[in-house]
């Protein structure tokens, strides 16, 4: 049986916020949910127009594809 129980870690002790649903010895897996550090190399906000001049769209973008001619 897999069961998740919320709790917290405090000075070397794990404190569960509810009673465990087992009455005997059982294996457990502990996952620590900590905030990941902010990546300082990445801008915090999107910059409108940041890719201006770096992206191009061909003039025939909406033209039918020749590869699909057999299916029409």
Summarize the structure.
The protein is 0% helix and 11% strand. It is largely without helices or strands and 72 residues long. Strand 1 and strand 2 (13-16) form a beta hairpin.
Overview of the molecule:
The chain is largely without helices or strands and 72 residues long. The protein has a domain at 1-34. The chain is 0% helix and 11% strand. A two-stranded antiparallel ribbon has the order 1-2. The model has no long low-confidence stretch (mean pLDDT 84).
Give me the secondary-structure topology.
Elements: E1 7-10, E2 13-16
Antiparallel strand pairs: 1-2
InterPro entries: DUF2281 (IPR018739)
Protein name: DUF2281 domain-containing protein
Domain DUF2281: 42-71
Distance between the termini: 55 Å
- What structural class is derived from the secondary structure elements? little secondary structure
Number of strands: 2
Average residue-wise pLDDT: 84
Q: Name the helicity range.
A: under 10%
Number of helices: 0
Q: What is the assembly state of the chains in this entry?
A: single chain
The largest sheet, given as strand count, sense and whether it forms a barrel, is: 2 strands, antiparallel
Shape: elongated
Order of helices and strands: EE
Low-pLDDT parts are none
Strand order of the largest sheet: 1-2
Per DSSP, what share of the residues sits in E-state strands of 2 or more residues? 5-15%
- Computed Rg: 28 Å
Domain DUF2281: 42-71
Protein name: DUF2281 domain-containing protein
